[in-house]
Amino acid sequence: MNLITPKITPKNNVLLIHDSSDDLIESLEAAGYNIFSSNYCYQAINKNITENQIEIILIYIHEQTDETVNLIYKLKTNFLSKHLPVIVIEDTQVVTNQIAYLEEGADYYTAMPLNLLALIARIESLLRRIQWISTNNNENTQILSSLYFDLTDRQLQILRLIVMGYSNKDISEKLFISEKTTKAHINSIFKKLNAKNRTQVLINCINSGIISIK
User: What is the rounded distance in angstroms from the CA atom of residue 124 to the CA atom of residue 151?
Assistant: First the structure.
């Protein structure tokens, strides 16, 4: 893998889930990231997340299996990791694989040969979005449980994107669903949260505890 290392020092904690990707580790470390490695063992992944204050997850996949797809689902439904951005890197780009990963909640997909500059730009973009949620006008916010409102996993995904400021079109493109389906989900979210528009959704989330401000 021939990677050009940019001259930046972000110093964010990145969890790289892989079987073997030493070149990628070296390149990301040279770019200034703190890299923590894990195999596909779910217990090892959770241990890394809790012990090392992981901020973003990269999964390097040689070949898609049910295990790799299920791993993304677990990461995006587990309370320890569902708020963390997940980037999937695959050896060979396969459109059906890309759709499967994104449908399970992955935030970005790319394939070899890898453009490191583009990957880092995407990492930084995702981290800024998380920062927007967690630090808004110097008030810490975080997505909390939505069980009281009976939100589905898909609705919680869309709610997260609404809070991040995504338009209906952006949500549709990110989740690979039609704008009609997106609108139907949003209308259902509005109903469950007793809101008439996006502003009321945000206010009701804060008041109800789906988003907490400390």
Answer: 29
